[in-house]
Amino acid sequence: MNGLPRERAPDAASAPTASPDRATGVRSEDDSPYDQGGADWTGLADAAWLAAARIGADRATGPAPDEPPHAEELPDTPGPLLEAVPDPSTRPEPDVVPGVTGLPGAPAYEREILTSVERTRTGPARLPGRGPRTVRRGPSPLARSLRGLGRRVPTGGRSALDEESTAEHGLTDGLWVPYFLPDRERAFDLVLLVDRAPTMPPWRGTVRQIADEAAHSGAFRDVRTVGVTLPPGAGEPALRWPGGRDGDPAELIDGRSSRLFLVVTDGLAPGWAGAGADRLLERLVSGGPTALVHLLPPYLRHRSSLFPFRAQLDAGGFGAPNRRFHCRPPLGAHDPVRPLPEPDDETVPVPVLSVRAGSFRAWADLVTGERGVRRMLPVVLAGAMAKGASAPGLRRPVVDGPRAAAAAVRRFRSLASPLARQLAGLLALAPMDFAVIEELRDLALPEAGPEHLAEVMMGGLIDWDTGTQDGPDFAGGVREALLAVSTRTQLARTVNLLAELRTGQGHGARLRAALHDPVRTALPGTEPGARPWLRIELAVLRALAGPYAGRAARVATRLTGPPADPPARPGETRAKPMKDIPNWEKLLPDSVVSPGGSVPPTTPTAADTSVPADDPARRAREEMKAKAPDAPFVRSGQPKIMGNVPPKNPNFTGRESLLAAVERQLAEDETTAVLPHALHGLGGVGKSQIAVEYVYRHSGDYNVIWWIPAEQESLILAALAELAAGLGLEVGPQANTAVPAVREALRTGKPFDNWLLVFDNAEDIDAVRSYFPNGGPGKIIVTSRNREWERVATPLSVDVFDREESIALLQRRARGLSTEDAGRLAEALGDLPLAVEQAGAWHAATGMPVAEYLQLLDERRPEILDLAPSPDYPVPVAAVWDISLGRLSAENPAARQLLQICACMAPEPIPLNMLRGGRNVQITPELDPVLRDPLLLARATRDLSKLSLVRLDHKAGTLQMHRLMQNVIVARLDPEERERMSNAAHLLLTTAKPGLPASPEQWPAYLGLLPHMIASDAVSSSDAWVRDLVFDMVTFLYYWGAHEAGADLTRRAWEAWSEQSAQEDLHVIRITKMLGFYLHHLGRIAEAAALSEQAMEVSRTAPIPEEELIDSMLQMAGSLRYRGDFHAARELSAEAFERSGDLYGPEDPTTLNAAHSYGITLRVNGDFRQAREIDEETVRQRQLLYGPTSGLTLNTLSALAADTREAGDFLAARVLQESTYQSYRTHFGPTNAATIRAALNLAICRRRAGFLEGAAELVEEILERFTTRYGAEYPETLGAALAAVVDRRIAGRLEDSRRLGRQTLDGYRDIFGEHHPYTLCAMVNVAATLRALGEVEEAERLDTVAGERLRADLGERHVYSLAAALGRANDHYARLDFAGALEADSATLPLLTEEVGEDHPFTLVCVANLSLDHRGLGHSTEADRLNTQAVEGLTRVLGEEHPWRTSARLHQRIEYDATVIPL
Questions:
Q1: pLDDT > 90: percent of the chain
Q2: Helix, coil or strand: residue 376
Q3: Are 442 and 369 in contact (CB under 8 A)?
Q4: What SS3 state is found at 265?
Q5: Alpha-carbon distance 196 to 203, whole Å?
Q6: Which pTM value belongs to this model?
Q7: Low complexity composition bias: which ranges (predicted)?
Q8: At residue 1014, does pLDDT exceed 60?
Q9: Contacting residues for 41 by C-beta, under 8 A, at least 6 apart
């Protein structure tokens, strides 16, 4: 037992099951993942009957008495028209459901490929994927839900022998006259009308399952299926019977109203928004109870032609038609955005069911229930369907060129879920043949379901009426646009999967052969079945371009012209077997390639003597080598994943002993205890180059290789976040989720072991080591100038070149240089590799004699030494560079100035686009024309590269300088010139400013600018444009999840701007608020409050825009909430809300932000009803302004669920938050911070609604995510921990609850202070756990302290104060002080009644506990009266299955935990 002796609710097995309702007469559709169905009395009766039938099988000679009669035995049954489901004993295997497999449809969409052409190579007997369904050993939840419809009724004509009465009278009178009873049969037939729309084939399995479960339920006389077509516009609906005969819906009406109709559809056909849908549904509802089964999940229905309303339905009696349903908006769960229309005599409600057991159970209750049975289900209104709008995604796309196609794909990706986006990329390489599509999906993306395929089909990408015999296809240019957002590796992998498909009939294999040999592979034929594959091949070839352009032109001619050559047989190329084509089956593993370029294999493959070595098609073929993701990985020269590695140095020379030492040291360590290896030494000795060379030479030894720039922490975060995507981890792009996930994946070796990480230029040992995967199966190389790495890593000292190595490099760079001259030059340069490389480049570019060059070096040395170089500033390389810079100044001064600007940035790749954007800035007379002319800019960068002063990467579009080169240039600048070049760097950075910092699509651009902004000290600039860039950058860092780095950069900007500008400066005010915002989220409440107050005071008097003042007011209100001053926060929030409404109106974004903030303040003050009213209006306005899936809309919807819950409507709150959470997961991903916050809200809603198991599991997951992302000492982590304290107590994990509770309470004290309301709420919840453990004295102390302080700060009527009072009463009761408990509960009850209402669950809990107080004192009559009142009230508002209702009925004490509201 856990909890107080009378607190813990009984197990489900001991709870009464008399009624399935969760509230008085009301049950909503059960859309939770937890099945509540179980064996009821009917199920047990059926089981008993089955057992008896088996035992008596040897005695029985005829059919069982209760065996359902066959169709031919039923009167008035149109046997020829509907095909009856056979008896279960003779029914085929579960995969073959009668009626469903016979569903007619277009042959292109319903055919089953039973045979295929001969495979081009031996494949597995069965492709991986979902596999065949297993036979159920027991009734499924769906079948159990339908059993409620299986009531038996008299047949009306036939009778059966009453053996008991006959025997009884025979023994009495001896006459043995037979007595008869009316025979009984099942009340209903079931007819499934399956939509025949072209988008329905992906749902065939689901439709088959519904029919199968209905037949297995035994609830119906028979189950029959028929196809139905709804033409768009005013066309008449039509049926298609099994066998292919067309029919009219009137044929379904049997005149007895004993037939149930279920219309199964995905709701995408445009006809569902037309008059035909009205006529179909009106005809069906006139013949019997009718419902729609909407196959799309609820969060997608708003994009379909069938968008139902939320409603509450009252039953009209057993078997009553839909017209007798009473339909009304749901109490407490109405949709503020799309309310149910007023009742109309011309419309009839038709329930809309999900493919969930609870949904069918609710419908069964309505069909069989008497008046007064009430259920919540979505509905559509027959008679008003034509007023709806057809699915926009199925309208004919207007795609009139590549730009329009790309825009259509962007729109689709902005709405689609991640799996749908991946699936669209796969389908771009498949024809619109659902047999092919489903096999490809099962093989490549088995986690994708039909709902994800539906997203693609309704995404506005497909032309459903192409006007050709080939059927639907992607609109023109859409395939190419989808392929454009994929990588070559992904494309190659998909092509290989296509070649393995059985349903591809060899077309996929031919496409793969064409990519291996585009010249000699025969062109496909142009017969109708091959034309879709021809279009696919053309799109692939155009996407690859280069050596495939010639074949693309031939395919385009073949596609548009008349048929030419006959098609080659599958598996052949011009009658030459594919297995004989050289290298055709060598599929090398894919790799993730860095922007620096592709990674060539280090181990050469066997030469293809049939194709010239320089053939472009062969080179392209090598780039396309990839393999299916599920195949075992075979080492073949490249790692599976390789990224960020700098390009290979073609002039790398020597260093063989060092490379061997690196290999030896890495091989000696245990893979389970990774130790880093450090390459350290003087600047310019080639540490990074040795690491790069090692990577390329040994790339075949590792599964994963990732290069990590480590000079700045933000660069480490960016590289590891990118690696998360490369590893395929299901995490978002935020650094604070991706980085921990990467470290854990590398530590465990899943999905890949045997990895290599290279941390380049790692100077801060502690910071860099914090990102090492601890104990993982891999290796780490560190390059650094910091010799302190010797303490923690196996060192490898890197010195200058041997003389022979210097000579070899000089002669490689400068052809014709004699060994003697090369030796003299190497001696003068001290064999420093960087200086040797630079001198070789100079000689190659100028041809200057060595003697003259040495003289120049001698002349430059004294000048260089005057700069007082540090050990990291080698004199030889500085002198060499100085010579090059002198020549550059004379020949191209603009290039010299450009180099000086780049020297003020970071030694990381600089985007060339940033330089090209400089045409609108003015820097110097020499440089301005260069920045405005792309040809002059290209010449300048080429001159810099020719002298080896920068390294150009044309593929990535960047240039990069060596950090020593930057030191040399900056050291030569005087302070005034240095400031001018830094300002120029800042201006160029502003020209490359990305878009919205909250948009993940813009994050790579921000990451590319971040190191240069930091290195150039952009935070010190007073330019308004630069400050805007800095502000956007710190905003990006918040959304990206680098909160500590963002707070640090914000503080630096705040300090610099505050020193440069007055407090009234708008930029200073904004950065002050931003710093306060960061500190609030990091838990530094006092410092954040001071900053918010400062910004508020200045904003009141400064000449700033009014919306900026309102923003300052809202931030100050948030600061007051964090400080616990809820009353002051309410006053300020109300002022901001009223001011914004007066100035901008109710629909302005500023007003909506103020309204949302005001709702938060009302919630923390306990005014949930007013908060609910404001949030309902805010949701409506944000839905209209931003759409239903906007983060702002969903944020307020989540707040509305909290309002609804705390106002006492627990069931409606859970329903609303389940929907909101699903939208978050679909559109933002499960790891997004906003999704996790919505999940915490949902967990609390589930617990309040009585779904304890689902709540506890979700809370533990949330707690782990918040802890991993932010750490334990974080406000939102503490909120999740406090929820877990309650769930663990309820689950009986009392010790875990106490341990976590004390940690959480200490965390609240440290962050918020001893007297903050949330600290006091934590005391109340911890006290409940201590009471359950028997530590009543400590619990009483916490409750007393918390109660007194809450009453003093918030008042005695605040919900937190009342929760503490209830806990205090429980303390008295636990000590058997019934009089004290009675006094406390009696004082609390009237306050609760007045504050939250007599039907609020909190009030009813107090009534239930008060009855126990009276019972303890012997007041049995009063105790019984109060207990009856509590049980009836809890049943009414929570339902009979809620744990609180059960506890009250069993006279058990109830705890009411305090819930903290997100601030």
A1: 26
A2: strand
A3: no
A4: strand
A5: 11
A6: 0.53
A7: 11-23, 591-600
A8: yes
A9: none
